Amino acid sequence: MATDPPRAAEPVDEYEREPVPEHARLGLKSFVGQYAGEHIAGTELMIGPLFIAHGVAAADLLGGLLVGNLLAVLSWVYLCAPIATRARLTLYYQLEKICGRKLVTLYNLANGIMFCCLAGAMVTVSTTAVGVWFHIDMPTLSDWSPHGLGWILTGLIVGMLVSVVAAYGYLAVARFANLAAPWMVLVFVAFGIIGLKQIGMRSPGEFWDLAQTAIWKGGAPLSGNVKFTFWHVTFFAWFCNMAVHIGMADLSVLRYARKSGYGIASAAGMFIGHYMAWLSASILYAVQLKNDPTQTTPLPGPLAASACGVAGLICVIIAGWTTANPTIYRAGLAFQSIVPRASRFKVTLLTGMAATVAGLFPALAMKLLDFVALYGLVLMPMGAVLFVDFWLAKRIGFEPDYAARYQVSFNTAAAVAWFVTLGFCAWLVLSGLTPIFFAGLPGWFVAALLFALLSRFRQRRLPALGHA
Amino acid sequence: MKPHSKRADVVKRVAQIVSGLALAGLILPAVAFFLGWVEWETSNRVLLAATILWFASAPLSLVHGNNKPGQ
To answer: Global pTM?
Structure first.
């Protein structure tokens, strides 16, 4: 699963409210490295097995991931990067110019809560690895609430350590994460190779047969999970990072790109982290089910240990820790923008504690596919608002950057587009018309249409102004 | 070239070779296990040794740091 990289924040607040100048722009290699590193995280070990829990068949998974990841890359290339390299501003500053300070504060609150839950899932993943050493009683696939004293104590210790480090040593961990990235990628490759041997493969030629009969067998999903088809996999792979490509959060990263085409660098992250790593993790879970069909809980720690021993456990702990760290930090930044006077240290620490408490609830990790889909869905409408404002405003007949031009702190058109879209998507999902994984696609068009219509209607009587 | 910078270059070069070997040490035992050449326990021991080697050598071999957007 995509995690937010250890990118711009307190230590280096560069070009937060101005376009990135030419001398600060970077080449393609920088982006390939960043995307490859940030999209391989501890949560990949949770997501891979959940595909099997959803009863996916081999062709559906391999094909769906190929198409879905390709669509995700195209979203970076054609939706996010062109705006990033033209405006060269952060998402937050661009949204502030369109939506006004108050609405952006609300967006930050939603963003912070989502980051907090995501960091909680990463704490859960690390706890499963530490738990292997201390032989604690682990939660099962159907557990929602904290599971036993051992689990709670281990989770609290892991979460508190991550929180304190995030509050104190953000940059050190960010550097360590960059250092660990190549090692982590190869450990995931080793997971896959060893897992294939453990499932009974003797030569590469046997792969497809085993894939269909022993790994991704299809059939009924495990209890409490919906059946996954090619389309579920495609849309999940496409939309699991919806907040950063269609939702435009990566404007903050790609604004440094010399050329718009550098959005293609995201392919490194998608096809290493969201293809190879998910398949490897999935294979390990298939081995677990083969050895003990009653053991249906996908626990990253035991899964990694069964393939790579201590090195595998270290990988899970480091993967969970290095990705929870920037996620907690960024959640803290989002919350701090709401109370700017509060100490960043205290806010980060409190955010980490909230993430720790969230991580004690295994439901967050066991239902990670649904949570990740929700995360993208909640933030996506603002990406649609930004897209319409940037490309279509003048063609449709309204002024872009409404809040900055007319000095308003709350753009009602953007707010209505956001909330009504969320209501529409909630209705689609709750009424059973569509699973949550698909709701983002119609939702984007609803948000774009509403914002365009409401902005045109709202601005029709306003005096024309020059450029803000 | 100053003596200390020459020494730093040598250290970096050696560290690059060691970290390269460490990365190879992550894949080769897995492949060897797949081919049935080594036992699972042996493969795991080499993986752990390669992990230690990587974290000991990589900070020296990547001494110029990162050039990543937004950092």
So the answer is: 0.89
